[in-house]
Specification:
Layout: E1 12-16, H1 23-34, E2 37-40, H2 41-54, H3 62-70, E3 74-79, E4 82-87, E5 90-91, H4 99-108, H5 112-127, E6 133-137, H6 140-144, E7 150-155, H7 158-168, H8 174-190, E8 203-206, H9 212-228
Parallel strand pairs: 1-6, 1-7, 2-6, 7-8
Antiparallel strand pairs: 3-4, 4-5
Helix pairs in contact: 1-9, 2-4, 3-5, 7-8
Bound molecules: 2'-deoxycytidine-5'-monophosphate.
Amino acid sequence: MSSGVKQESVKVVAIDGPAGAGKSTVAAHLARRFGLLNLETGAMYRALALKVSRDGVNPDDASAVTAVTAGTKILLEPTDAGNRVLLDGEDVTALLRAQEVTAVASRVSVHADVRRWMVAEQRALALSAGQGVVMEGRDIGTEVFPDAIVKIFLDASAEMRGERRFEQNPVISLDETVREMKERDARDRSRAESPLRPAGDAIVVDTTGMNLDEVMTRVDDLVRVAFSR
Ligand code: DC
């Protein structure tokens, strides 16, 4: 799918990659460093998942989930502490990291019509920003903004990503965290509709053996070069 979106008015830095690769940390850093608005698209899938669960809709039923999108408005309000997420006007930010929401978000995100709706909403959000944007997700470089000025695909081994997630949020054992991580990866990478993969012109940064400083230096360089072109 080609966006056909004209981007003269907004410069987009695309950050994609699997769960736990460090996308949020990198995106927040780049936002501060380059004065960009940070939009976390995963939070939008999570907000939709919350609504689907609340409505008692089966997350695997494509048409039922698509029907939910029709009456839904999800807004991201970037703050210094991350995105505030408004679901039909309600601030649901604090509810979106729950285990159940995470699992349902992965399931609702496989449906083609749901993704089409999300992509349109995400483009509109970015284009209304009126300033440069760093957008983080799974398909930003491939679908949402194929013309982004720089596309960074962050990756790391499942074990490393599991360890990082476990440190941030040790609600289940490390083994279980890694197992869930692999399960979610498999679903995100194998879905028919825009599977998780680097865009052809993305720069893949594998952070497995890198410390945070090294990662930040690398992404800073990539964005600085892109902005100076
Ligand atoms: O980044 P996250 O963990 O908050 O994302 C939650 C889920 O949403 C994840 O399973 C994949 C999906 N997602 C997606 O399919 N496309 C995006 N651009 C962002 C997230």
